Amino acid sequence: MTEKLFPLFVAIPLAGAFLIALLGWKKKGLPEIVGALIPCGLFAYSIKALLFTFKNGIAVHHLGGWLPPVGILIGADGLTTFMLVIVHGVAACVALYATDYIKKYTSPWIFYVLFLVILAGMNGVLTTCDFFNLFVFMEIASLAACTLVAFGTERHELEAGFKYGVMNTIGALFILLGIALLYGYTSELNMADISNILASKGPSRLVTLATIFFLVGFGLKAALVPFHAWLPDAHPSAPAPISALLSGLIIKSLGIYSLFRILVCVIGMTPLLTNILLFMGALSMGTGAVLAMGQKDFKRLLAYSSLSQVGYIVFGLALGTPLGILGGLFHMFNHSVGKSLLFLTAGSVEYTTGTRNLDEMGGLSRRLPVTGSASLAGAMSISGIPPFGGFFSKLIIIFAAVQAGHVGYAIWAVAAGILTLFYLMKAMRQAFQGPLLEKWKMVQEVPWRMRVSMITLAFICLTGGLLLLPQLKGLFLNQASKVLLNGAMYSSTWGGFKP
Amino acid sequence: MILYMFCFLLFSIGLYGVMRKRNVIKIITGIIICEYAANLFFILIGYRMGGRAPILSHETVMENMVDPLPQAVVLTTIVIGLATTIVLVALAVRLYEKYGTFDITKIEELKG
To answer: How far is it, in rounded angstroms, from Cα A131 to Cα A212?
Structure first.
């Protein structure tokens, strides 16, 4: 395991996508096997990467042997490998689930091509050390996701896909303008070098403008509240595995990870910026929770819930204290697993009964015991009930808010948490408890691969709290939170060249 | 300076098209205008007054050349813009097949 292998995180999924695109339409079974094996293999590989960065701090690879300032860097630090583990863990379960679920669509091989392209784009965003590559990989992932949202090609899917495409392109263009402004100011695209030059040149209005553009662009990608309009349409309309991927991974790696990587490590946080992010986080928490209350559509309710939980994550990370960052990252992990699981169970219900309307369901846990209990596990983790992982992360975020002196925000977070508990439990009761309706008497439990992936995710939800044990915490969470805590150290640890 | 301002003005015009127009095709046109504005801005940043093309050969001296990096970057963003436009236009065609109209107010069914 050397740092030379990090580019493979991008290359392997892309190669798989090309292989399926070439052969998948005539070789039956090949798309499923390749599409499921690649995320599983990369998951094992990302664990190795995690251990590697734990031992060595960072890993930098010079593409093609060209050294900076000319060459392009691919690299990873604790935060990157933390995200890589989450991405591949969830993506492996989603891919396994998709092997059965996607059979109801025509030409499933296209699904696997786009799925692997999304994976390559996300890995590219996570491992790149260069602003322009960040933009390119982000567009690769967004475009593939936009196509997958419209994968069903029915009325609603097309409409949601179009909205998602338009909003994401606008977000990407704002990011491009921000990159252009930073390039004009520093004549560099390498993140570490930009960070160095900004530190030596001091603040400027151009950098402030670029920061605003980044805030708008990544806010659109992460669906923070003033920019959230596309999310509740796009996430429910996609096929269930893609909803899980969108809510669990894409808004986090393209939105939150990139936003904080740039604001904390490159530009540097200011008190004003912290306050803006805290406010946006709190606003997202409340808005998402209130809007989720009245939803009848199961997946739409989950999408609004994502909005609210993303607010928690941004709030925790923006606090900037060790506890806050730890809570934000831990909640990112818990929400990725829990919300992916919930979307997969919603997909199972849709797969077996053909409806997403909560009013038409009822008593389904009698016919779908695995789906019902997995769904309950996910809901309990997201809403924060004690033995589950989500409880600890929310608790840490609230404690951190009190510790940092934001008591009002802490009370707000508790209130939003209570609302979360309320609407998720209401949905669970409507769907899975109560008398079984006559028309669902013949419903069968989903195929075994879908069950296995749901059980795996439910198990991670249940045991997620164990990551706070001192042995595991140092390896997984502390490694990542150290990067965000010492954001200003970014340029020196990455060894960018001196201007 | 005035040129850079015009880029931002162009970007705002595109943004206005995306926000206010009701026709799907006009929204896509607005996005294309935004893309052009961003690309133009990036390429202008690399321009030096009276500079010449950054082509290196044995005889040329490396002075007074424009910055080649934005040109390479903008080539890539143009290709990305092409891909975005293709996806959006393909979606617009399918939308027209389903709804029989390009009017976004008649297409809007997802709410709440």
So the answer is: 16
Q: Which residues pair with A190 in a beta bridge?
A: A130
User: How does pLDDT run across B20-56, given as a tens digit for each residue?
Assistant: 999 999 999 999 999 999 999 999 988 888 778 878 7
Residue A499 confidence (pLDDT)? 33
User: CB-based contacts of A334: which residues, under 8 Å, 6+ apart?
Assistant: A381, A382, A388, A389, A390, A393, A461, A464
Report the residue from A159, A173, A295 with minimal CB separation from B35.
Answer: A173
Choose, out of A157, A177, A181, A193, the residue to mutate when testing the contact with B (most B CBs < 10 Å). A177
**pLDDT at residue A498 in the model:** 39
Determine the pLDDT at residue A494: 62
Q: Kindly list the domain boundaries of chain A, sorted by start residue.
A: 1-268+486-499, 272-468
Residues of A in contact with B41 (CB under 8 A): 177, 180
Q: Tell me which chain B residues have a C-beta less than 8 angstroms from the C-beta of A169.
A: 31, 34-35, 84, 88
Residue in this structure with the two tokens 């919300």, named with its chain if needed: A339
| Angle (CA) A32 A149 A134, round 5° | 90
Contact A234, A246 (CB under 8 A): yes
Low-confidence ranges of chain A (pLDDT < 50): 496-499
Per the rule left: phi > 0, alpha: psi between -120 and 50, beta: everything else, A354 is left
Q: Which of residues 350-389 of A touch B (CB under 8 A)?
A: none
Dump pLDDT digits (tens) for A272-313: 999 999 999 999 999 999 999 888 889 999 999 999 999 999
The domain limits of chain B are 2-107
* Rounded CA separation A83/A480 (Å): 9
Instruction: Name A113's Cβ contacts closer than 8 Å, sequence gap at least 6.
Output: A17, A20, A21, A24, A31
CATH number of B2-107: 1.10.287.3510
pLDDT tens digits, residue range B49-105? 877 887 877 777 777 788 888 999 999 999 999 999 999 999 999 999 988 888 888
- The ipTM value here is 0.95
Specify the 3-state DSSP secondary structure of B3: helix
Interface of A with B in 169-208 (CB under 8 A): 169-170, 173, 176-177, 180, 183-184, 187, 189
Q: Which chain A residues touch B94 with a CB distance below 8 Å? A: 150, 153, 158
Residue A492 has a pLDDT of 66
